[in-house]
Amino acid sequence: MKAHMITYGCQMNEYDSHLVQSQLVSFGADLVDSIDEADFVLVNTCAVRGKPVDKVRSLLGQLRKVKSQRPLVVGMMGCLAQLEEGQQMARKFEVDVLLGPGSLLDIGTALESNGRFWGLQFKDELHEHIPPSPQGKLQAHLTIMRGCDHHCTYCIVPTTRGPQVSRSPDDILRELDLQLAAGVQEVTLLGQNVNAYGVDGGARLAGYPSFADLLRMVGRSGVKRIKFTTSHPMNFTEDVAAAMAETPAVCDFVHLPVQSGSSRVLRRMAREYSRETYLGHIAAIKKHLPNVVLATDIIVGFPGETEEDFQETLSLYDEVGYDSAYMFIYSPRPGTPSYKHFEDLPRELKTERLQRLIVKQKEWSKLRNATKVGTVQEVLLRGDAHSEGFLEGHTRGNHPTVVPKAFGAEGAGVYPVLIGHSTPHMLYGQIVDADGQPLPEIPRLEAQAAALISPLQMA
Ligand code: SAH
Ligand code: SF4
Ligand code: F3S
Fold this sequence. Notes:
- The protein has about 450 residues and is an alpha/beta fold.
- It contains 15 helices and 21 strands.
- The strands form 6 sheets. The protein has a 6-stranded parallel β-sheet with strand order 2-1-3-4-5-6, with helices on both faces.
- The radius of gyration is 23 Å and the shape is globular.
- Iron/sulfur cluster binds near residues 148, 152, 157, 192 and 232.
- Its cofactor is [4Fe-4S] cluster.
């Protein structure tokens, strides 16, 4: 069987796609790079906003057309598959295999059932399953918990992914060991709300560390860089900032979604914190980590958001001074409380506010990135950039970075980089040696040739 996977959504979905891909390989499938080559196409879906849902709908339409011309098994997995909305779509577009986020390990049964299988249960075995490590990659995701116990009024995730289940520290550390053995240097611990790790359904699990202690444990594994996402401000404790400060491998990077700067809107979102408590967390983080890089998620145009509420979001942005932000227009999701109880604001108003927020974000990103010019940053270079002769990667603070290839550093690796130039979205620099001196750059044409030769040399 030749299988092709298409992934939408967040890092959780990327992790799950990798997990299912490794299952497919273990059942003898070849993974191929395009729909044309495939006899099984599996779409990993996202339902968090209207846009990703629309994308899935049009892709499934396209796949049904292909199916009418030649034999093809179509599968749908992930968050949308768990919802009635997705299941209706699956019927309409003749989807053969449907796997909810808790049933991923049913992929084998699905394949055996001659391409007619729907699995929608949340199965415990998934939490204990340890997927093989990504080969030849410096970066890996590691799921430490699934689901979410919060009930933010706008959010569909608790419905699609079910209640929170933390993975056991043993399983996490075993998976990490495999990743380290495979050469991973940066691990990102994943969960919808990592700060609540070990406290499922409000009860602390016996033998599970707190998230702060989990960071300390992972820090002792020998991995070079640790990141984590996402943190919910409600479950944030100062001990997490303290653990970050005393664990050198943990990057000084915190993604703490605020959603809104207005306590009134936060209440309507049922976020369970106020503007003041959020700013208190930021102050604690900055106290323990003076060089911290801060990122956030913001929803603009939540139902009932007034101009004054929005101004509070803008002023909070200035108070925190984020390095980067994911900004979303509120998207009403059927099945959520805010969809049922609140009226959506006019589209133009939401778009106009988003534009103003983007201006703010660009100003801050420009300012924050400019402070890196002249400093040496540790950059994890993943490999070739779009422009020939360049490598791309990211700093410990997650800033995308581009460098020219240099002698002694033609490919992926973790290198010190002297930053020479910045834009709001990118840092540009040169790889340096232990004394901070730039390594000699490889002239463009030679760099191209090196890119062709190095995979052969490695083999
Ligand atoms: N568990 C994470 C977020 C997961 S969803 C957390 O609580 O931080 C990722 C982001 O999508 C959220 O932070 C939010 O900003 C955005 N989001 C979720 N539902 C949305 C909706 N209905 N409309 C617009 N943005 C939404
Ligand atoms: Fe959604 Fe809130 Fe849970 Fe995040 S914490 S996944 S926004 S319900
Ligand atoms: Fe989307 Fe599910 Fe992630 S809804 S954002 S793929 S948790």
